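User: Second chain of the day. Same drill as before.
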Amino acid sequence: LYTLAADEATFTGPEAFFGFMGVSFALVFANAGAAYGTARSGYGIASMGVSRPELIIKSLLPVVMAGILGLYGLIIGVILLQKIPRRGAYGFYNGYCHLASGFCCGFSALAAGLAIGVV
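Assistant: Same format as last time:
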């Protein structure tokens, strides 16, 4: 049975919730954009292989670009996660800043993945 010692502080309060939601938004939406861009680009590679097989290698670039979007979300998520302290001063301002930066990273990667999938 594990008991929490009195000197071990845990994440409490809604401000940490907003910070962690920023991390999750960066990861989820960036990887959703990467998945959509990869799926649509893979479909394009398959159709390119039927019509013009000599251009398959050139059509691999959008798949790589879409895969990088997921890595961007992962990197931003790790950076944001390291900025949330276990104990100490972490207020609503920091929580909302991390939430907004997770939104910005996630939705921009989602839009980029949609653009890669359309083109």
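Helices lie at 14-51, 61-82, 92-118.

User: Great, on to the next one.
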